Amino acid sequence: MAASDANAVPAVTMRARAIEYIGKRHRFHVWEALPWILIAAAYFVFPDRMTFGTQVLIAIMFALSLDLILGYAGIVTLGHAAFFGVGAYTVALLTARLNWGEPVTSLIIATLISAAAGFISGWFLLRYRGLTLLMLTLATAILLQEAGNYRSDITGGYDGVPGMEIWKLFGVFENDLYGRTYYIYIAVLLFLVFLVVRRIVYSPFGAALTGIRENVRRMHAIGSPVHRRLVAAYTIAAGIAGMAGALFAQSTAYTTLGVFDFESSAKVMVMLILGGTGRLYGAFAGATIYMLLEDHLAKLSPEFWQFGIGLLLVLAVLFARRGLLGLIEDIGIYFKTGGKS
Amino acid sequence: MPQSIVILISILFDGLAYAMVLFIIAVGLSITMGLMGFVNLAHGAFAMAGGYLVVTLTKSWGVPFLPSLVIAAVVIGIASIPFERLLYSKLYKATELDQVLLTIGLAFMTIAGYTYFYGPAPLTVPLPEFLTGQIDIGVRTVPSYRAFIIAVGAVLIAVLWYGFERTNLGAKIRAAVDNRRMAQSVGINVDRLFTLTFAVGSGLAALGGGLAIQTFGLTPSFAVLYLVFFLIIVSVGGLGSLKGTLIASIMLGVFDIGGKYLYSDAGGFFIYALTVLVLLIKPAGLYGRE
Prior knowledge:
The complex is a heterodimer of chains A (341) and B (290).
Chain A: H1 3-8, H2 11-26, H3 34-45, H4 50-72, H5 81-98, H6 103-125, H7 130-150, H8 152-155, H9 180-201, H10 204-214, H11 216-221, H12 226-252, H13 262-275, H14 281-300, H15 302-319, H16 323-336
Helix pairs in contact in A: 3-9, 4-9, 4-12, 4-13, 4-14, 5-6, 5-7, 5-12, 6-12, 10-12, 13-14, 13-16, 14-15
Chain B: H1 3-36, H2 43-59, H3 65-86, H4 96-118, E1 134-136, E2 141-143, H5 144-166, H6 168-178, H7 180-185, H8 190-216, H9 222-225, H10 227-237, H11 242-262, H12 267-281
Antiparallel strand pairs in B: 1-2
């Protein structure tokens, strides 16, 4: 629409159009049920692989939190594992040092503490961009790792937190050998988190984040409080990552300082990139495929797996910048238009 | 002489030797990042490749240690050119995220490839006679290999400083780091300049990788294990600044060794805290352009 047209339309009509457009984007599509049907189906088809399924769900939640800041707000971070680690260690230290192993309350506490960590670090870090921001996020994660290593009398260092004991879920459900209880528990939480994230990215707040990603100067120019928006998104993402970390600690009853590794931050980024950033379901596709491939290939040959992931990344950057889902979308468009576009 | 001064001198000496290796590897990264703003996380992979080339040359082909260092630097430097021309050059205008992903991908592939051929265990290299002993520097005896590293580092710093500050080529590089567009518009071929500095930087990284075998230990994961250190040096020193890279290397080297001597548990913490502090106050690094 040309600028002169826009002036001719009354403001009320413009507003109504905008509301309609945003409403249309926000509406649920039929295909959006697919991942949830698959998650539910997996429970019945592979009842003895639920320990693995649990880890996949946690990876999805972790990747989803990264999608909110990387895919939507465009914050490139190399230290997202910091918040996963804070969540995991909150749960671990609560049970090992304070004898509090109740899953739900410790999950809430872990989420809040991770969000607080995200708020504090985000407040300082998100003034910067580019390499400086990359380095600061990376250094934050390692700083936490080193702090944990320094006080290894409390954290157990790289050997892991000793004596973790997670109580029964709601005081009733024991986590069985196959992890079925936790699969359902985490699937429900993932669904709730997903609803929240979906609501956020389609809200005006989410639109502002996308605006910051696309053109930060223009967002400054139109008076958007860029820093506050970024910190808010970062805090939420940190909370979700912390929740994923807490669930990891609860479901495995095990945590080491390795969770803070650069490799963990890189891994979740790879998952998201392979699935596709800024599209919510990219986290689902990417994390699932990554975990499945890792499960099969890493056992056969770790070198082959690492080489393959590296190659996939290079190819994705050069040829499929929008990830697997973007690729599927492109193929769909290709067939719809008969290969003309 | 009081014990505390001996400890201090030991820390300074060992830290300096450590810093020289870090400097030799990181300097190329700093210049190339300053030139093109390219976030190259695969830089450590070139250092690692250099280290393995030195091992192969000395152990399998019987080449003495010193010539193999030179050969490794030249070979890796030349071998890095196709990477720059075919892959990196496509992403100069891309976002940092794309650059990070591409170079992480390359680093993963390199690590996997070298693990497949050389195995994950740390390798060593046979040193010539005069580098294995101890020499006396007045206060205490020190491993002559560390003295050798410091000497190599000092020579390289002198050469780099001369090349950077006193030659036509160095002036062009400094001009391009300061303002790429302006440099281009006065007729400097920044692309070719970048290819050249990239090759030299990778060659230096390979030399550093070769020197690092005895001090850091060489495994395929070297490519990412010390990457964080290189990135800290580059960002704390300031992109494209020789002086900044040197000062940041010495700070990191001395503080890390000092931390390990005096507070073995908190040493690492201190370095990262310092890094965060410097970057919060001076986001472009100590000698970087705002």
